[in-house]
Structure formats: C-alpha cells, structure tokens
Amino acid sequence: MRLQYSPNIRIVEMPCSGTIDHRVLLQAFEDGADGVFVAGCMEGDCHFQKGNYRAKKRVNAVKKLLDEIGMGGERLEMYNLSAAMGPRFAEIANEMTERIRRLGPNPLKKQSAETTEKEGDVA
Amino acid sequence: MVGAGIAGIQASLDLAESGYLVYLVESSPAIGGTMPMLDKTFPTNDCSMCILSPKLVECGRHLNIKTYTCADVVDVQGEPGNFTVIIRQRPRYVDVDKCKGCGECAEACPIDVPSEFDQGIGERKAIYKPYAQAFPNAYVIDKENCIECGACEEACQAGAIDHSMEEETIELNVGAVVLCPGFQKFDPSQLTYYGYGKYPNVLTSLEFERILSASGPFQGHLVRPYDKKEPRRIAWIQCVGSRNCRIDHGYCSSVCCMYAIKEAVIAKEHSKEPLETTIFYMDMRTYGKGFEKYYNRAKDEQGVRFIRSRIYEISEVEDESKNLRIRYANEDGTISEEEFDLVVLSVGLEPSPGVMELCRKLGLTLNKYGFAEPAPLTGVGTNKPGIFVAGAFSAPKDIPETVMQASAAAGASASLLAEARGTLVKEKEFPPEKDVSGQAPRIGVFVCHCGVNIGSVVNVPEVVEMARNLPNVVYAGEYLYACSQDSQAAMKQIIEEYGLNRVVVASCSPRTHKPLFQETVREAGLNRALFEMANIRDQCSWVHMHEPDKATEKAKDLVKMVVAKAALLEPIPQVAAGVTKAALVIGGGVSGMTSALSLADLGYRVHLVEKEQQLGGVARRIRHGLKGEEVQSFLNDLVAKVMSHPNIEVHAGTEIQAVAGYVGNFITTLTNGKELQHGVVIIATGGVEYKPTEYLYGESDRVFTQLELEEALVAGDPRIENAKTFVLIQCVGSREPERPYCSRVCCGKSVKLALKLKEKNPSANVFVLYRDIRTYGFLEDYYQEARRKGVFFIRYNLENKPLVEKEDGSLKVTVTDHVLGVPVVIEADVIGLAAAIVAPESNRQLSQLFKVPLNEDGFFLEAHMKLRPVDFTSEGIFMAGLAHGPKNLEENIAQAKAAAGRASTILSKDHLESHGVVAVVQQDKCAACLTCVRLCPYNAPKIRNYAAEIEPLLCQGCGTCAGECPNKAITLQGYKDHMQMSMSKALFREV
Amino acid sequence: MKAIVAAELDPTFRDELAEKMKSLDFANCLACGACTAGCAFSDLHPDNDPRKMLRKVILGMREEILRDPFIWYCTMCERCTVECPMCVNIAAVTRAIRGNFRTDSPGFLQKVVDDTIRSGNQMDVQPDEYMETLEWLQEELQAELGDPDYRIPIDVEGADFLFGFNAREVKYYPNELQNILKIFYAAGANYTLSSQKWDATNLALFSGKDEDFWKITEPMLQEVVRLKTKELVVTECGHAFRSVRWGYRTFWKGPQFPIRSILEVLDEWIQQGRIKLDPTKNPEPVTLHDPCNLVRKEGVVEPQRRVLKAAVMDFREMFPNGRWNYCCGAGGGALAMPEYTEQRLIKGKRKVDQLLATGAKIVAIPCHNCMDQFNDLNKHYKLGMKMEHICSIVERALIMPEKKPKV
Amino acid sequence: MIIAQQKPIKDIAAMIADCKKVLLVGCAGCVTVCLSGGEKETEVLASSLRIMRRLQGNPLETVTYTATRQCDPEYIETLENLVKDVDAVVSLACGVGVQYLAERFHDKWVVPAQNTMFVGGSTAHGVWEERCGLCGDCILHRTGGICPIIRCSKSILNGPCGGSQYGKCEISKDVDCAWQLIYDRMKALGKLDKLLEIQPPKDWSKSRDGGPRKAIREDVMIG
C-alpha cells in the first residue's frame, strides 16, 4: 500500500514473535539500539497458537528488568497486529519513533561518549 | 492449454503439479497475457508484475510444461481422452535456446515502431522482447517492419538470429483441451463522440496502465503522452463499449469499475502535486471480496470524486493545451461543464475475432456476444466433452475468478484423464548438494533495482559498494530485475565462479520471492538454507519514497544485518513425509459436494463431513439459478452422485472435534468419535442468510427475505398469489458499517424474482429500490429485460433510505425518485428484502481448529486475494464456496472444482518435503525441565531417555520453545539467537 | 411537483405508447443522464430535460405527461439520443405523445395541417394562383435568360426527377424558386414540376398524427409514379425532405425510387461540370448551418459543404457541426406556436454564439423553417448578418453557358 | 529438587560493586529446571549487570559459564583458567554450588546470585511448592505420605491444632491444613485408627540440630 512511515526502523525477520529471547532484546540495547519493539500477531490469531502470548510475557519481563537496571522499560514495547494491517504498522513505527525521540538516545551512548549519527537528527 | 495468460499459466501449473504433461500454446511471443501490462492490481495494490513473475518463472522452468509461443491452434479432431491438435507456429527468427535476452540486437536495430505491449505509446525495435520479465526470455523479429539490414545478426554474439526460419505445423496428441485465450480490449474509436484517436488526450485504460507502470514508456512518471506535462485533473469514463445495446455490447465487462478506482488511487500516489481524479459512472460495481472497502476508502479517504452520469460527448478546448471539456448532467438534471487535462476511457472486454473463428471450427456454441459461456452449473464445461474453458474468454471476469476457473478447468481435465496421471511426467533432478561444512563463509550479495521500484529511491550502486567490503563478502553486484530469468542464470554462474557458500539477495518480500531464489541456489548445488533476503523494497523504497537518502541508509543497514546473519547460516537437511491419498471436505452444500466429486473422480478417497443430517446446504432453498436453471433437480442428482460414489464416505450429523498433523498427514477426530486420516482439507462451510432488523422484518408477515420470498412464490403462498404491489429493497445488511461488504448475489436474484413475479402476474407493480444495481457480466441482460417488462427501479442513497411504515394494517413504503426528486408513496402488499450473506458462527471455531485466519467480516482469509484465492497460507488446506465469501451458485461451483484441482496437486504426490525450518535439541544441554513439552501447541517435543527430542515433521518452526528453553538447549534452525544477535551487532558496528 | 402515489400510476400508458410507436425500446432507459447532457437546451429554461419526461412515461404518470410542457418545448432534433446506448429515441416518444395523447396542440400547428390536407400545400395556395406564379416566373426567366422559348416543364412525364418544393417558395419567395429554376436551366436538367401536388412540406411530422401525415405526403410520392420520373428531388427544406423520406420508409408500399435533396443534385452537377461557378462572386466569409432533419436524421452532410466550397471564397465551419450540430431552436413546429416564441429565442442563443464564433457575414441555411428562425435571431440579437439559402449563393456564382442547351 | 529464586539485581550489583571483572557461573541442575540459574538466566544476568554498570559510568567486564552441576568437584574444575583474572565469582547455583566454588577457589570472592528456597516440585509451569524439610528421619509412612513438619505451619506431630477453617490453615487461606489432608487421605485409605497412636517428640538430632551432617557409602568410595 506504500504507506510512508519513519525511516528509523530496522526490521529483523522472525518466523513468529514467540522466537524472541530475553538476551536478544538486552543485546540489542547493549549494542546501541535506542528503542526496540516486537510486532506479533493479534492475540488469538497466532498461526502457532501461543507464540505471541509468550512473547508478550518475555517482553514484559525484560521491560521490568530494564527499569531495574536504569535503562528504562519504555524503550521496549510489544505490539499486536495482523499481516493485513499495513496502516497499523506504519502508525506503530511512527508512534514508537516519537516515543524514543522524546526519551532521547540510548543512555549507554552518552556513557561511551562516541556518538553514532544513527539518530543524528534527533532534537 | 490454448492461451498463456494468467488463466493458462495457473491451469498449466496445477496440471503439471498433478502429474500431467501440458502443451501451452500462446499466439504472442511471450506468455503472461494482459496481466504484465497492468501496473497495480486491486484490491491489494500489489504490483501486477511482482505477483505474476514467480508464476511466470515457475511455469517457464517447469519440466512438464512445453510452451509454444507465436503459435495458434488451427484444428482439433478426436474425442475426449484422444484429441489430435494441429498448431501452426509462426517463425520467431530467433533461436529461443541460444538467445540470452541480452538486448544487444535491439540496440543495433535501426527501426523504431510503436510497441503493442505499451499500447503504442512507447516504442520498440523491429527485433524486440515484449517486456522485461517475459518468458521465454528471448527476442523476436517483427518481419513487417524489419528491413533485413542484418545489424541484429552482427550484434548477436550468441548467434541466435536466423532469418531463414519458416512457419511450422506441429501435431500434438492430447487427452483434454482447455481454451483460455483471454479477451480483446474494446476499440473506442468506433464511438466517435469520445474523440479517441482524434483528441490526443483521450486514452484507453490500458494505455493509462502503461503510463502508470514502472516498466512503461515513462518509467511510471505520470505524464500526458501529448506534451509530457503532469496532468492535474484526470477523468475516467465508465461503460465504454459495455452496457451499450446500440453496438450489441449490452453486457457489463465486470472489471472496469474496480480498475478505474485503482488507476485513480495509484495515479494520486504517483503525482507529487495534488491530483484531482473524477470517475463518471452509472452503477459502481465493486462486488468482489474486499472491493467495497476499497471503493469506500477511495471515496472517503483518498478523495476520488464519483459522479453518477453517463457522458454524452467529449469536446476539445481550442487552445493548444488540447485539454478536454465534458458537459454532463448531474443526478438532479442540472448541467455542469468541467475541463480535464486527461480523459481515460474504461474500455470493456470483448472476444477476439480470431478466437471466435476457432470456436466455430470446433463447433463450440458461443453466446450472443461471442463469449464461450460455460454450460450451466458446470463452471468450466462446454457443449464439447473434453474441451473446457477458463478466464475472460468464457465471460468478462476479474483475475481471482479467472484463476479459480483455471484451477477448476485443470481439475476437470485431470479427472477426465485420471488413469493417465503421472505417465508422461519427469521428476525434477537437482545437482548433488555441496558439503560446505568447515568452509569459511564466502558470501555473494545480489542487490536488485526491481525496475524503478527500488532503484528510483535507494541508491543501489552505493549499497553494492558498501556490501563489497563487508566481512566474508566475496561478490556484490546489482541487477535490474533479480527475479528475472537472466539474473537467475547469472546468479548460478557467479555462485560457481566465486565458489560462494552463502547467498544474500537484497530485493523484495521473502514471502513472494524466497522460494524462487532458494530454487536457483539449490540448482547451483547449495542447500536452500544457505540463503537469506534483505527486503529493501517493501521496507525501504516503498515506505520511504520521499526520503531517498534515509532509505539508502536503511537499505545499507539491512544488507549489513543480513550478511552478518548469512555468515552463521548452516545447511538444513530436507525431511520427507508420506502423503495420505485421501481428502477431508467440510460442509455438504453444493460447493462441498462438487469438490468431493471432483476429487473422487480423480481416484482419491473423500470424507465429506456435514453437520446437518442431509446434504444440500443453502441451495435447498433455491428454486431457480440466475439464468433460470432448475436448481432442485441439479441438487438432487448431485446428492445422488455423492451418496453412490465408491470413493466418497459421507459423515452426516457430525462436526470436527479435533485436528492433528500437518499437510499430507492430517488426523481429524469427529464429534461422533470417528478418526479420519487424510492428506488435504477443503473447507466449504457455506454462508447464512442475515436476519434483517430493518424495514419491519419480523413485525409483519408480509415482509420476506429473498429466500423466503422465493419459497413462498414457488409454494403458491396466497400472500404472494393475490398481491398486486411488490417492493424489493436491496442492500439490507450489506454495505453497512457493521458489514462493509457487498453480498454480490442479491441484485441478480432480485431482478430474477421481479421477472418471475411479472411472469406470474404481468399487471403486478414491482418496485426494486437499490443503491447500485450490480448485475455484472451477462446478468445485465436480465436487468434490461426487467426494465422492458415494466419493473420500476428507484435508487436511494445511504442518507435517504426507504421508509417502511405500518399504516392501518397495510405497509407503506416511501422513497424519493432519483430522477424526479419527489417522494414516491407505495402501498406494498409484499416486501422482499435482499438480506446479506453472513459468515456462520462455526467459522470462528474451525479457524481455531485448523489455525487458519478469518477476515474482519468473518469469512476465511485466502493466501493471496489475487493469485491464490482458494489456498490458505498453511499448506494442504483449501476453501470453496460461500466460506470464502458471497458469490453465486455458478461461481461457487467453479471455486469448488478449483479447490479440488489445487488439492490434487498435493494428493498426486507420493511424498512431500518439509520446508526445513524446525527446532533442534542439543541433548547434552537438556535438563529435561519439560518447558518445551508444556509450551508446544503441536506436541512436537517428547522426553526420550532423560532429554527432550523434537519430531521434525510435527514441528511448525515457530521457535516458541527455543525462545524459552532455560538452558538454551533448543535452537530454531535458520533463526538461532546468535544469528539475531549478530544482526543487531552488525547494525550498530561501524564498517 | 407533488408526491407520486404508486396506486395512481398507470402502467398501461407505457404499453399504449409502445403499441402506437410499435417499439418498446424507450423502456430500456437506464436514466443515465447522457440525453440530458446531449440536449442543447435542457439547461436554458425549465421543463426541457428529456430524462425527466421519459421517467414520467416509464412510471406511467399519465396526467403529468398530458400536461408536461416538455412535449411542446422539445424541438425533436434527436441530438439527445443520437448515440443513446439503450437505443431510446426521445423525439419519436415526444411525437407519439403529441399525436396520440395530447389534445392541446398549440398555436396554429393543427390549422396549418388541416389547410395542407385541404389545399395540398402549407400556405393554402390555390391552383390558379400557383399556375399564375409559374407563368409569371416563366416570363421573368425568359427575359433574364434571354431565351424567349424557355418553358417551365410542368407535368412532363418520364423526366429524370420530379422537383418538390416548399409552399413559401411560391407564396412569399418566388425569387428563390426563380434562382432554382435558373440553375436547373444552366445545368440543362431534365426535370418536371407537378401541377397537382408540389409542396413536399408536412407539419403533421410535428403534430404527431400519422393519418394526417400520410394524407399529406402520400400524394407527393404518388406524383412520382404518375409522372413516371426516375426520382424525387426536394428543395432546401429540412422537414420537407425528412417527411417524404420518413414517409417513404415507414408507410410507402408503391414502386421503389430514390429521393434526394437538391443539394446532392447540385453537388453532382458541380462534380460533373454540368454547372460552373465563380466563387469570387461570393467574397464574404460564409458559414453553414446543419438543419437536424436534413443532416442528423437523414444523413446529408458532405454534399452541401462541397457545393459551398465551390461557390464561395471563404467557407468556415461552426462547432459542433454535422451529425453533432446544435438545433436552431425552431424545430418541431415551434414556428407555428407563437405562445412559445420566447423559449424559441432563448434556445436560439446557443446558435447565435456559434455564428459569432465563426465571424462569418453570410449564413447558408438549407432549410425554410430554420431560415425564419435565423431571420428572427438576426433581428432579436442584432447580428447584422445575411441569411441565405444555398441556391441563392450558388445562383450568384453561376457562370451561364453561352449557347442554349437542348431542353 | 532444590528450588531457588534470583536475588534482586540491585543486591547482586551491590555485592560486586567494587569489582571490575566477574565470572558468572550457571548450573544446569536443579536451578535450570526451576528456571532461575540456567545458561539463559546467567547470560541475562550478565548482560543486565553490564548495562547497569555502564550506565553508572563504571563498566563491568563479565565472563559466563554454565557447569553441568556445581555440586561435583570435577564439573567446577573446568573453571580453573576462567577464574584467573576475575575479581569475584557470582554463582547462580543453589547454596551448595556457591560453597563448592568458595571451597575450590579459596583466593576468590564468591557471591550467591540466588536465594535457595526449599526442596519441592512444580505444581504448574512456573509455580513451585515446598514439600520436604530434610529432617533426616522421615515419618511420612505414619501420615499417609503428607509431611506435617513442612506442610503444617506449626509442624505439629499430633495435629490438627483446631485452628483450621474449611481445611485451610489459620495463618493463610491459601495454605492447606496438612492434618486435614492427612485425615482425608487416611480416611480414604481406611487407616484412621493409625492416627490414634500418639507420636513421641521427634529426635531432632538427626536433623541439622545435630550439626552439619555427612552421608557416607563405604561400598562405593574410591581409594
């Protein structure tokens, strides 16, 4: 449908959101991601029945962990949408980009002082 | 197979996959028919070429399909099972095997002539290839315009050009013939008042498609051919060459309303400046699945103007802009005049004279418009046994219906030749798989332009340059169309030359193109799993159109991530599984029974499950088909055939309890306890008539639904017999916010009911209150017959619906006449409501059992609206009939045969190969903590000797267990954690 | 218009009309609006929308139709449905309603029809008056042609063609008849006039009563048989030409013979060189009006253009023209309905705009009804243009042959 | 099996606040089964600690290893070269593992990442319940297989205490009264009379009250 959305998103393809692992999420932040979101199917529509429920539990666990370690849990989010909902994906992409812009770049970057221009245009 | 449009291609693929040798005869130099000329297709806005090219390549490369281009059938003799077909192949003057499609010859050729493919707007040389992804990927010489200068011969290094080629006559011996030669577009120059051919800014819709298309003469840049200016105001005129008795084209061409909306929407997308689009129409006929939503979105959100007025004439303004002026009448009779930069004529479809000539020779009966209308209630049959029809040649129709009819024709031909299955076919051999274990990764990166779809936004050379110095990359190159046949050949050659053991393609969506590239990688001797795709089109160029530099930046990142993952890819062994040669058909209506019979005739066992005690479904309540067919007698002998067929076992009065297994090996338990083993499933659970809440339904015994009215009429109910005034109201429950879809059959049915009422009592007053009369195709003749017989048609709109009131015992209907603009007050004796067709509640439960999705309206969601209308995404499960969506009996029968045709492509195989992406347990790390056993919905993991073990054939590859195994003993092949982590690491590490 | 009560609708009206018209095509109507857009006058004044009229017919609103002004406003020019996709013919419907259902025939339309039936011609010219005028013309021509034994052939049997013309050419504009006869003379035409029946016009074409119509036109056709001529040629008059052609096709059962317009004959003569023209005689810019009956309904389009191009220096087309021309506003017997003169002049405005756009000084008008309308428009809109028949223009450019051709 | 739960991350971080490099050791035994100390949890803990310390501007280097079990010397022998240059070792095993590491690497500071909770089993995925108190002198044969020491809040031997309502213990309505369970079971088995026998006070010397215990099997000892 060629809907335009923010170009700050990089997509990692998985067969199902149920494949996501706590470490992969944490690793993304450690590597420098400013924000991560997991897009799974609508609740109850998962082709593999429970994949997206498990993903939501794991994402919530990691969100709690991120709060505890000072990174901030809002940088990670789980969304549920179906393959047919192009407009919803674009909306999420823009919404998440705005949220991360508000939160600012990944705090680890400030610490390690070298700025990558990934988020160059962030106000 | 006569004609290689989408119908010919689909039918050939289905038959070849079911074990039959197919001769595909195409009169033009390349297969593909009209679809390659289209820019986008409705209602998904997929690029037509992108969804077609995998099928083109699959059909082109298929061992069991022999394609004859530039060939026409001249004669067919013999009887079903043994036909001799004479075909005449015109010389191509280029040897197809030698020609690499490199195009040097065309460069050298001095002759420029208008290109037929580009509808005469673009140009081509005397030696040309119809279009980029054409199959066969070879050039052809157009002798009329060739001046025999020999320049092409010199330029051709492959020595493929041979001017001495002559016409050949070839004789083929076949068992069945499928005629699907497509249609011819109506030539609007004969309607002088539109000025086509006289005014340069009046174009046909197909010409406009070429202007919109990225492979078109202007590379998708929307300009007027006349002065290359970008138009600001475009008008579409509907019913050009359709619904016109004056030129004996009284039928409706069924597709023009939808393609006009699509062209308007896509044109808006192509123009930087705001573009005003207007469609002049009589009835907006968006009756297919998802069409109404598409129309509403175009109208309400995308600002396409719809003006209900048939255009009298187009005149040209005097100044040199040659813009066009249209003087048209509004619905209230006032006159408006507007100027447009461009007018597109939505030309209809008509049979091509050459084909009609062939049909006459074959003794095929054509209808009064020259179409080969199928024998009633057969979907694909003709008056000649053994000869079937499919596609727009049988009636003007849309691509999904064409594909359904093609699969149905394939199914019908297959069942005719059931014994000969598998006798003439060859298996596909692959070279032995190279052992790459232990080798350091050597990655090849192939970046695609996809015409301008990627190249116009993402700076492809920059991406290739970046990819060249990524770790482990030994080759990086760019391709205009990575999916086209020549690029595939180049890829194989480069894998050989550079000794690649990993391949990355940066192009479009893996969903449509991964299998195609994996096939090529496998043909080059590499395991299919050593391949990964970066989607730099749907995730970059398409969605960041107006930010090219950011899109290029993102494309580079995606390639970096995928290359990092590619380095870690390991070969995955293929696991084969047997196929139970039996089918489960759910639903004993006409669709279910037709599918069951088709499969049974093919020699497979069929379990037909019906929740009622007797077969028949909703068809039990239908007396006459839309064309007057006797439905009850047809239904009874269908039931008789099913009950008596040795291969069919009917399970009545029972439903599905539980489902296990996967394609080829399903085990289903019924509520009566029986356990069935089968290889495929066809869901044909039908539809239910909506119980209206409007128009006093239920509060007066004189308000019927259509089915009730037909039953009462046939039974001679006194309420009907002595009624004098009838009011039929359309769109009751359909095209409403709660059910934003058209139930498609009610207009045809109301017209038929009105005719029946008039026939019974000519002096009766019959009113039909409608929003759009959607009697598409040849149903339009019945609409005209109803008007001639004095049925009153009054249009209402959503804001001003008819008012039905009870007034001292009688029903009063008030509606505003759409021409005179004054209210009409009708004392109705009988009111018939065109109640919607809704999805049965049981669909939700079935969707859970088989894990197949529903769309928002509750009907089952097919794998692809355009090209896989009867398949589900999960393998081995198909659908037919009202379960897919509202359609009439004829169309349901075609879809039922199509589902059987598709299912037989699986049942005809002895074993299936699993797709390989499954979870694996590293036994020594497993603490047998039972997490995986408890989590897996498919019961794939079992604990054996103190550690978990996953049954590869049961595992669906979802990775839920891998994500939660506490000791990381389970990994999902192809998607291991360290692969995903390597992608994020690569993303943020500066190269 | 008040609310329509379905019970009061009278569907039999539709069938009655169909029986009278011997066609039910009008019932195909899709109410698509093409005719409303095609009608050049539907937006100029109320009650001129063909779609609304036909809707009343289809719904069976008998009373409404019996007093719908559209029936008399419509000039029956057929532009609306010339390409109707459902083969509806609004003009035929209007005419059938006028003739079979309406009793309020306006102005003196019916009086003229009755006169024509009685006297054989539209202007009630008595036979002696007719013969005197011809004799008078004969003398004039003998003087003008300098040929004392020139005779106007009357009742000459076996001639190539019988010439039928318009009563106005005898009653008011004998000079125009003179021009025609002079041209015939120059071409050495082998023709004859009839003493019994010479006026080809027939206002019953507009009144819609077929019995009246056939009473008037049949004698004209019978004259051809009586005088044993090879064909019938009709003067520059739209509805006269249409009447004899339509009558011939619809009712005539007698022997077959061609019927042509004088313009086709002039064109033939010019091509064959039987008459020579000197265009410099007509220096001023000339434009051509296409009468609906002659051009759209009977298809005579090119001959008059070739004739004019041979006869004038500066010929300019108006737009639209030919089969798509605008009616002058006076069709359908409007000139015989003084009470609708105002509507007629409003309709004429569209034609005036066309004329001004061409910048021509002379308007060639091959039709008498149109001629009256153009004269009214000339005065009403102060155009200051000359309105002429094509024969007058041709006569002016005529190069008379030296010696006297055999008669 | 032994059930353990991870300490809050702040506490773990506090224990190693002054360390620059630590070794985190998971255990593939009981703590993997109770989802608190396997390889996955070890690496999640490591990653969390690294992020936390980097955020505080005091980056921490971590090495992770998951032993098959930490309660057998041979399995922790492999840590020999891993512990060389680390400032501390964080063990995700139960208390036994932590002490084995401490004993083996006496020059290394070893800290527990878990709170070893109890000996029990899972009643649902993610839910564990205590069942055995390791008293060293099992009396289950007298109570139909239901242990009053652990499951009765007051560990009385001759219950019920009379405070239970509707079969739930007076301390919490989520806790079953052990003796209600024992009574129901013995009644079902028709052995109610056995409950009449008065139980003498338990010999707690067999439990940890007698000091840390040792179990020796002469027959299998090597050398």
TrEMBL record, chain A:
Pfam families given in the database record: FlpD (PF02662)
Domain called F420-non-reducing hydrogenase iron-sulfur subunit D: residue spans: 2-104
UniProt GO molecular function: iron-sulfur cluster binding; metal ion binding; oxidoreductase activity
Residue numbers spanned by region Disordered: 101-123
Record has DNA repair as a keyword: no
Keywords: Iron, Iron-sulfur, Metal-binding, Oxidoreductase
Superkingdom, natural source: Bacteria
InterPro entries noted in UniProt: MvhD/FlpD
Residue ranges with Basic and acidic residues bias: 111-123
Protein name: F420-non-reducing hydrogenase subunit D
Native source species: Desulfofundulus thermosubterraneus DSM 16057
Taxonomic lineage of the native organism: Bacteria, Bacillati, Bacillota, Clostridia, Eubacteriales
From TrEMBL, chain B:
Cofactor(s) essential for the protein: FAD
Protein's organism: Desulfofundulus thermosubterraneus DSM 16057
Family in the record: Belongs to the HdrA family.
Superkingdom of the source species: Bacteria
Protein name: Heterodisulfide reductase subunit A
Domain 4Fe-4S ferredoxin-type residues, every copy: 89-120, 137-166, 917-945, 946-975
Keywords in alphabetical order: 4Fe-4S, FAD, Flavoprotein, Iron, Iron-sulfur, Metal-binding, Oxidoreductase
A Pfam family of this chain: Pyr_redox_2
Gene3D superfamilies: 3.30.70.20, FAD/NAD(P)-binding domain (3.50.50.60), NAD(P)-binding Rossmann-like Domain (3.40.50.720)
GO molecular function: 4 iron, 4 sulfur cluster binding; metal ion binding; oxidoreductase activity
TrEMBL record, chain C:
Keyword Iron in annotation: yes
The 4Fe-4S ferredoxin-type domain, residue ranges: 20-49
GO molecular function terms listed in the Swiss-Prot or TrEMBL record: 4 iron, 4 sulfur cluster binding; metal ion binding; oxidoreductase activity
Keywords: 4Fe-4S, Electron transport, Iron, Iron-sulfur, Metal-binding, Transport
PROSITE patterns linked to this entry: 4FE4S_FER_1, 4FE4S_FER_2
Protein name per UniProt: Fe-S oxidoreductase
SUPFAM superfamilies the UniProt entry points to: alpha-helical ferredoxin (SSF46548)
TrEMBL record, chain D:
InterPro entries in UniProt: DUF5981
Disordered, as annotated region: 203-223
All residue ranges annotated as the Methylene-tetrahydrofolate reductase C-terminal-like domain in the record: 112-205
PANTHER family, sorted: 5,10-METHYLENETETRAHYDROFOLATE REDUCTASE, METHYLENE-TETRAHYDROFOLATE REDUCTASE C-TERMINAL DOMAIN-CONTAINING PROTEIN
Protein name: Methylene-tetrahydrofolate reductase C terminal
